[in-house]
């Protein structure tokens, strides 16, 4: 198990990441250096905190990867979140609860790299959260058939 102490994120001022467009914000994740970074992944979670019922809620939209011209560094953007959309189960007598509702999809696992910040441009009312995934020590072998 690796302990993570993530400090306030900042971008190297020498690296020309674009400024955020009007109505958007630039959100930055600085990852600490840890041993065996190749065994880690970063899951980006893009969404909003909403009051929801018992239905499964999610947003539509596309998180796009871009390359910083002349540097080769990746950065990410989403123009808008569509929705929220939800399943249509009946929720009799259930109070609404606050929940982080995410962009649907599962293409948001990035390689862990403490040498580069993760830069995400979003609409100003959108949150970017993240989770660190770590590979276990146990490795299994496939069965040949």
Question: Can you describe this structure?
Answer:
By secondary structure, the chain is mostly beta strands. Helix content is 0%, strand content 41%. The chain has no helices and ten strands. The strands form three sheets. Strands 1-9-5-4 form a four-stranded mixed beta sheet, with no helix packed on it. Strands 2, 7, 8 and 10 form a four-stranded antiparallel beta sheet that branches. The protein has a two-stranded antiparallel sheet with strand order 3-6. The two termini are 35 Å apart. The model is unreliable at 3-8 (pLDDT under 50).
Strand content: 35-45%
**What is the rounded Rg?**
18 Å
Count of runs of 4 or more consecutive helical residues:
0
E-strand count: 10
Order of helices and strands: EEEEEEEEEE
**What is the helix fraction of residues, given as a range?**
under 10%
Looking at the structure, what is the overall shape? globular
CA(first)-CA(last) distance: 35 Å
Output mean pLDDT: 89
Widest β-sheet, arrangement of strands? 1-9-5-4
> Structural class, please?
mainly beta
Q: Characterize the biggest β-sheet.
A: 4 strands, mixed
Uncertain residue segments: 3-8
């Amino acid at each position: 198990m690796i302990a993570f102490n993530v400090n306030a994120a900042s971008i190297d001022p020498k690296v020309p990441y674009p400024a955020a467009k009007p109505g958007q914000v630039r959100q930055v994740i600085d990852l600490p250096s840890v041993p065996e970074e190749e065994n880690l992944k970063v899951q980006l979670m893009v969404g909003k905190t909403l009051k929801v019922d018992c239905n499964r809620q999610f947003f539509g939209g596309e998180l796009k990867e871009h390359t910083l011209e002349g540097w080769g560094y990746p950065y990410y953007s989403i123009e808008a979140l569509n929705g929220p959309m939800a399943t249509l189960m009946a929720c009799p007598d259930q109070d609404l609860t606050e929940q982080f509702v995410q962009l649907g999809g599962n293409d948001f696992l990035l390689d862990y790299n403490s040498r580069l910040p993760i830069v995400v441009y979003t609409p100003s009312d959108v949150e970017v959260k993240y989770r660190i995934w770590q590979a276990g020590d146990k490795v299994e072998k496939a069965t040949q058939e």
